[in-house]
Amino acid sequence: MAGERFIIEGGHRLQGSVQVSGSKNAAVAAMAASLLVPDECSLENVPAIGDVRFMAQVLESLGVEVEKPSSSTLGLRAARITAFSPPTEQVVNLRASFMVMGPLLARFGQASCSPPGGDVIGQRPIDVHLAGFAAMGADIHRQGDKFVAEAKRLRGARLFMDYPSVLGTQNLMMAATLAKGTTVIVNAAAEPEIASLAEMLNKMGARIQGAGSHTLEIKGVDALHGTAHRIIPDRIEAGTFAIAAAITNGDVRIGGLEPRHLHSLVAKLREVGVQIDEAEDVLHVCGADQLKAVTIQAVPYPGLATDLQAPMAALLTQAQGVSYVHERVFDNRLLYVSELRKMGAEVLTTGTTTAIIIGPCSLSGASVHALDVRAGAALVLAGLVASGRTEVSDIYHLNRGYQSLDGKLRSLGADIESV
Ligand code: EPU
């Protein structure tokens, strides 16, 4: 709901333990993969968030039967596909909806979809996806507002991606599983969500090698079958809690995560002065009385995630000295800066991809807008350390990507409520 807001009374040190939910971006990709088979795919550790609900609606519009046996499991059965094109009004809800294209095209030889929606964080073209389908033999054209792709059967090809796009890699990888012959994707994205999808597809009978590296080889097969798959922990949610602990000078154990997915963040937080101990699936994060300014660069994995760039900027308002924040993935992901300024942050921007933060800033509560899911998270983090009351509006963005962010923060001692 657009009118929902978080009210935060800042100044509470976070303490205790919190459990990370399943990954938003891995979940929506796994859901799309269910289109490749008529049998059921069952997913565990699915986060209860808006984007999963939106993706379920997109799949249902195509005829997929979606069952929810519990709050964290989903059963998806694409036995009777009744449409090859999701309605535009659903597609614009989330960018991941474009991932129906690869599986539909591979299994049925046809698919169409309007340009997808998603957060306003810069230009978000889909040329990489379309060029890949075309190289695998699909005919691509526009029909009204939609892209249409058609191919009797896709054929394996050597694909060079202009940019290691995450959704692009996932879309093409799914398409290639049922193509005739071998596909090699060069300059593929290497995010953990891609390795997770490849693992699911291989359990379904696909033959994918190299997932998690920048070169994928996919030997096409004639048919795949259903499977059960567990969604990996959400590294961005985990990172957000690590930064929440740091910004409040707190002492928090974040459990149920995969530490190796967070190494770039851990290294940067240590450079800032935060103490972090790693155990098998836990990070223990302790703040420090004085934080040091640093330079961060948001780049593709294994570098620091662009999805943690805004939360890190919130933290750096509390660091002593001048910090530089460079966004290298999206061309307009600093829009949250104007909201942080309303809270007293001293931040300059040069162009749309570099912010300079002069800290430490004494933040005070204000009324601010969550402009997208991660920008919203940054404002919540700033609100935790600001003096007085912060009101974050448009939190439906946050609910799209974080399962019970307010509830989890409250369990750590934050004074935050949703109204
Ligand atoms: N790009 C192209 N051509 C394309 C596709 C992308 O040039 O055909 C460029 C974009 O313009 C952008 C860059 O590639 O500059 C990265 O875009 P990418 O395609 O990798 O992003 P995405 O796949 O649309 C996913 C996540 C995002 C995350 C990015 C980067 C999902 C559903 N979304 O988006 O997650 O920021 O990868 O890691 O997996 C979020 O969770 O808040 C979020 C935005």
What are the main properties of this structure?
single chain, 419 residues, alpha/beta, UDP-n-acetylglucosamine1-carboxyvinyl-transferase, Chain, 2 domains, five-stranded mixed β-sheet, four-stranded mixed β-sheet, 14 helices, 24 strands, 31% helix, elongated, binds uridine-diphosphate-2(N-acetylglucosaminyl) butyric acid
Please give a structural write-up.
It is a single chain. The chain is of the alpha/beta class. It is 31% helix and 26% strand. The chain has 2 domains: 5-21 and 233-418, UDP-n-acetylglucosamine1-carboxyvinyl-transferase, Chain (Alpha-beta prism), CATH 3.65.10.10; 24-230, UDP-n-acetylglucosamine1-carboxyvinyl-transferase, Chain. Helix 10 (309-316) links the parallel strand 18 (295-298) and strand 19 (319-327). The longest helix is centred in the middle third of the chain and has 13 residues, at 235-247. The chain starts with a strand and ends with a strand. Bound molecules: uridine-diphosphate-2(N-acetylglucosaminyl) butyric acid. Residues 24-25, 28, 95-96, 119, 122-129, 163, 165-168, 189, 191, 306-307, 329-330, 373-374, 401 line the site of uridine-diphosphate-2(N-acetylglucosaminyl) butyric acid.
